[in-house]
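Bug: token stream looks shifted between consecutive jobs. Job 1:
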Amino acid sequence: MLENCKSAKERWGGVNEIIDRWLEERQAMLVQYCALSGLDQDLSDLQRGEKLRSFCQILVDYVSAGHFEVYDQLIKEGREFDDAEALQEASKLYDTIDTTTERLLDFNDKYLETDDVSSLSSDLSLLGEALEVRFSTEDRLISVLHTSHKDLVS
């Protein structure tokens, strides 16, 4: 899609849209996470399970979009601007993101395979810690590989 754009502004300005859409998805996921964390204990197991499945779906969608759309575009941008320093830092940041990906997908896998929500509160707490690390790392990745080039795109 973006490879067909002619100018840097056309090409890398489009990354803004991808990032914006992805960050909106992050916000929606965070809202569901907060709602799930504060679930009323009076909810039926069926209602709790529906909310949990909905959250897991947006969680996996968010993780997938990052790995298969956003990060690729950011790396391409760093390469296009021949930003070796940014690409080196991005490699380290990606390692951190990869670690959180495992934790997020483990949470998803666990709750897809069971109806037992007895450890949900503690699992959500651990998940929240992983999300916090991931969000700050992703924000740094965006800063290093995209925001730092915005003046070159104009």
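Job 2, same session, no restart:
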Amino acid sequence: MTALTLQLPANLKFTDEEFEQIVAVNKYLRLELTADRELVIMSPTGGETGNRNFDLLGQLWFWNSKNNLGKAFDSSTGFKLPNGATRSPDASWIKMERWDALTPEQRKKYLPLCPDFAVELVSETDDVEDTQAKMQEYLANGLQLGWLINPKRQQVIIYRHNQAPEVLQSPISLSGEDVLPGFILIRLG
């Protein structure tokens, strides 16, 4: 299992600042906080997953640099979701008007919103059901489009706002649809 969930006493509630301090003193760990206030410790990925994620980010960066419609983020970016969870998708993007609405101080901290677009790339040791639940959490908090990419099963699950998930088997490409106009992700190595 890639992620380890640390159960915390019910009366122990972290403020955003305290969670940031925990992350700061554990800078070599990738941490998330669930809406139920569970601390999730995620291990590094293997080489194949890291390479796929780099490829994905490169394609998203290239499209975004040409179109300048929003801001793209890597897996180290934390999003403070409306439900109270702090999550870090493998790749994400928000519309420029949502970025522009943030104060300079908000931009420096975990972003206080849900991304418009998010990708989770399942590594060899990830629990697929946990990752699917994470995608549903993004949807419940305002995600417009999400991709759960599972290389082992050669499968992609597309999550869209107010729609049932769509499962694709061995797709050659994925469309950013109307959320990322003109973005086409080609097969990941």
